[in-house]
Amino acid sequence: xxxxxxxxxxxxxxxxxxxxxxxxxxxxxxxxxxxxxxxxxxxxxxxxxxxxxxxxxxxxxxxxxxxxxxxxxxxxxxxxxxxxxxxxxxxxxxxxxxxxxxxxxxxxxxxxxxxxxxxxxxxxxxxxxxxxxxxxxxxxxxxxxxxxxxxxxxxxxxxxxxxxxxxxxxxxxxxxxxxxxxxxxxxxxxxxxxxxxxxxxxxxxxxxxxxxxxxxxxxxxxxxxxxxxxxxxxxxxxxxxxxxxxxxxxxxxxxxxxxxxxxxxxxxxxxxxxxxxxxxxxxxxxxxxxxxxxxxxxxxx
Length: 301
What we know:
With 301 residues, the chain is of the alpha/beta class. The protein has 2 domains: 5-85, Winged helix-like DNA-binding domain superfamily/Winged helix DNA-binding domain (Arc Repressor Mutant, subunit A); 117-287, 3-Layer(aba) Sandwich (Rossmann fold). Helices cover 56% and strands 7% of the residues. The chain has helices at 10-20, 26-37, 39-44, 47-54, 58-67, 73-85, 91-100, 105-126, 129-141, 154-165, 181-186, 204-215, 253-269, 271-287, and strands at residues 145-148, 171-173, 193-198, 220-224, 237-240. Strands 2-1-3-4-5 form a 5-stranded parallel sheet, with helices on both faces. Helix 8 packs parallel to helix 13 (253-269).
């Protein structure tokens, strides 16, 4: 059924594109990729101008709109035009205003719960086991695995690096301390792997790090929220998750679930060497008393 475009937002359309992208023909994928990456031009330009910029026939833009459920190109374009008219308002502020209008605590918790469940489930629905296993195998075979995630994604990258380090010795967490991120990247080569974590809004340094690694022939494992995200472009392995939230800030639950699924694949596929590494790490942690233990009570005389 065609959409009533007034109720549709640009974010709704990007989700539609992401959901249907793999099923589109190569020509429609080209148009969809351009639309996903150029929302401003899409809102400002005519169908013919957009088609020319996308490198497709004008009729392809109409077919894309209809494939996604719109009557035609104009309905597809309208949400982007409305967004441009509202330009200048902070997205986070806008989302906070909507959140504050969303009803009582019970309703808020129900929406949060539904979003988080969907984000976790997206790891299974958006990825098959073979895709995750292939990424795990690349990490197991690498000389060095450099993990990068900045701003909100830093916590996920840190947890991914920490748990991976329980199983393998070749993991390094990227850091820009002292402006040295670029120094860490230039040491990578085709025998290494860069694991990048990022979701919209994408951190510029992460996007640039992925581009630098890709140009040097370094295989990239991208954990991200869209196959069209800038860190997914040219990545050898793309692992997808959702980041939806009714709150003002995007959820990290999907990213965390994807990271845990990847480490689980490494654990299963690493064989005896990860068993030996884990046993050694466990003994090291025990020796330095890393974890709190209840003191033994002295026996009563």
